[in-house]
Amino acid sequence: MYQLNAVDKKFPGVHALKAVDFEIKRGEIVGLVGENGAGKSTLMKVIYGAYQPDGGSITIDGKAVRFSNPRQAMDHGIGMVFQEQSLILNLTVMENIFLGYEQQFVSYGVINWKKMAAAARHQLSKVKLDIDPATITSELSFAQRQLVELAKVLTLEERVDGDLVILLDEPTSVLAKEEVELLFKLVRELTNRASFIFVSHRMDEVLDLSDRIYVMKDGAVVDVVAHDEAKVDAIQHKMVGRDVDKEYYREQKQRPYSDEVLVSFDGVSDGRKYRDMSFDLHRGEVLCLVGTEGSGREAILRTIFGLETPTEGSVSIKGNRITRFNAQNGVALGVGYIPRERKIEGIVNGMNVYENMTLSQMANYSSGGVLKTSDEKALARDWIQRLAIKTPDVYKDCGGLSGGNQQKVVLAKWRSGGSDIILLDHPTRGLDIGAKEDVYEMVRAMCDDGAGIVLVADTLEEAIGLSHTILVLKDGKFQKRFDGRPGEKPSLYDLVHHMI
Amino acid sequence: MNLTRLKPYLPWITLVTLTLLVGIANPAFFNPVGLMGLVADIVPLFIMALGMTFAIYIGGIDLSMQQMANLVTVVATVYLAQFGIAVAFICIITGFLFGAISGFVTTRLYVPSFVSTLAVGFVALSGAKYLSGERALSMDATLRNESFGWMFTTVAGIPSELIIAGVLLFIAWFLQTRTTFGRALKAVGSGELAAVASGLNVDKIKILAFAISGTFAAIAGLMFSVKLSGGDANLANGFLLLAIVAVLVGGTPLTGGVGGVINTVIGTLIVVVIRSAMIYLEVDATQQQMVFGVVLIAAIALTIDRSKLRGIVK
Question: What's the DSSP call for residue B149?
Answer without folding.
Answer: G
